[in-house]
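ok so I'm stuck.
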Amino acid sequence: MEALSDLNTFAKILTAKGYNGYFHTQGAYAGKLKDSIGDYLADNRKNSGGVPNQELFITGYLLWAGEDKPRVECCMRVKYLNGKFFLHKMEVARKDQFGGVLKQSELANLSVITAPGAKEAIAMVSDTPKRKAVPKGKGFRH
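replied:
not stuck anymore, here's the structure
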């Protein structure tokens, strides 16, 4: 499903889905989603005088509990065409404190509308807690 959106709409939809942290566009331009993309576009136009890259890489943390804890990172690949944005791929990875990948998921053929919410993206790479088995004879008696 293809959905082309201007920057305001693109950022508003993803922010409503829980992508409300800080991001980097093209490895720099830290800020909230709209600010990060907007700063990249403004700087690119000013310094290069040309058309910005047609594919943007937007990265950020979806879950951060400290440097010594696992974290969840998100990388969105966004096509930028004629002032419109199209989310077409998302990679979500849970990494250990050293940056090693513990679990990852890649979603393709997305749109800003069909992208999972941040909580769903985190759940895709999180371990599901296992229920402890109750030893025989230790359960409830009726």
